[in-house]
Structure formats: C-alpha cells, structure tokens
Predict the 3D structure of the following.
Amino acid sequence: MEKVQNQQEVLSFAEQVEMEFMRLYKEFSVSDAPEKRKADIIDSFWQDIYELVFKPDYGDIRFNNCKSKLLTYNVYDVESVCNMFIKLNKRYGGVIKYNQFSNLTGINRYTLYLWHKANNTNGYVFNISKTDMDEEYNNLYIINYGNGDTVEYKGNACKSNDILSSKRFDVIKKLQEEMQDSNTNGLSNDTMGHALRANNEDELGKLYEPRRMVQQEQIKQRILTELPKLGGGEAKEIDVVVDGE
C-alpha cells in the first residue's frame, strides 16, 4: 500500500480521501467486479485510506492515544470529509454507514452519537456544552502538531488566543439523511416501491390508503354515535363508502 506522492500543492483532507479512493478503485478493478461484491470491496478501502491520510505520524505530539489527524472542532474539514465520503459511496456503488465513516477518520462511533445527541439546532453545526466536552474527552483522541503555537486542550476544544472552539458538525444527521435518500432511490426502482412511497411519505403529498382508512373510520364512528339518538335503538355495524367506492 503506497500513498500518492509528488503532489504539487497541499491537498485538503477531503481531496486526499478522493485521490486515495480512486487509486484503490482502479487497483482493485472495482468497476469490473460483480455488483453484489462492490459494496464489500469499497468498505475495505476506508481503513486503508485512514492509514494513509488520517493516522497520526510517529513524531506527532499525541494526547489520549491520538487516533486521527482530523481535528474535530474544525467543522469545515469534518463537513468536507463527510461530504466526500457520501459522494464516493453514492457514485461508485458503496453503502453509507456510520461504522465505515469511523474506520475512515479514526473518530469512534460513540463520539459521533454524542455530537448527534448534543445537537439542539435544525442545522448541522452547533456548539457543544462543557459537560459534553468532558464526556467527549474520554472517548475522543486529539493531536497537537507542535508548530510553536500556544494551544491548550480541554476535552477536544482548542483554546487559542483565548477563543474556545466548541463547534461540532453533526455527522450522524448528515449521513442519516443521505441514507434515507439512498433508500428512497432503491424503492423507486419498482412498482411496489412506488406504492409504498405513495402510502408512507408526506413529501409526496399522497398517502392514499392510510388517509382513506382514517376518513372511513371517522365517518363510521360519527354515524354510530348519532344513530342511537335518532332512533332510540342500538347502533349496528355498517359499511361506509367513501369517494364512490
């Protein structure tokens, strides 16, 4: 396994991930593999890419057994890597999974769930609390490149020039939404899938069967309630026809 060399410019983490992925994709001839095997082969790439892109070098100054060069409070880098992970899976036949994102970045799955739980906004970027920082510190690994800057670590928040960075990117929220989209695409490939979507997705504005059943039940209950008042007798079970059916 050899990392791509002779790069004329410094590439971002996301760009390095894409470059290494494409090299492995060609090396293992994934395009020629059976469709049922492609996802498994692609899953095997993420750990290899971690070793080449995110695994700390021997000389890095580590805290808490550091496992990743991806500084998690740098929300721009985390978002970019997350988007690249999604794009490569969708474009080349992989499957988006939380565990494989962890294998790629070295950020463990528990930490991803911690961020998701702490996100109290409608967006992806949020501020983590002091309590969550302390919990995060026990499960997340951090790194100081030792470049001469004065940096004090508390949990995984970087305090530099008296600015405490508590921002995080909700990886789980983003991956979950993309997985739902992929599932919708799969359902849309056949007639039964279209019917399931029409009956269960508000976005389509249809929901034929569930709404019709509710409407029938409401009318039936109203009639059963009113009949005793009108005739003085017991209400009998009746069939209700809605919309001419």
